[in-house]
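User: Here's a chain of 55 residues. Predict its fold as tokens.
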Amino acid sequence: MGSTGVLIVVFILAALLLFIGIKKRNKLLITVASVGLSTLFLVVLAILYAVKYTM
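Assistant: Prediction complete.
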């Protein structure tokens, strides 16, 4: 359960970064947040895939 909480927190932080980057029109923040979100998405998919096949 701990890892799920961490993932949710990281997701919220990345979304906030993306939002701030868009508001301030900061290309670097937007890029970092987008990369973070897509990486997180892939990690979540990998975890779900692993859980599905280990159950």
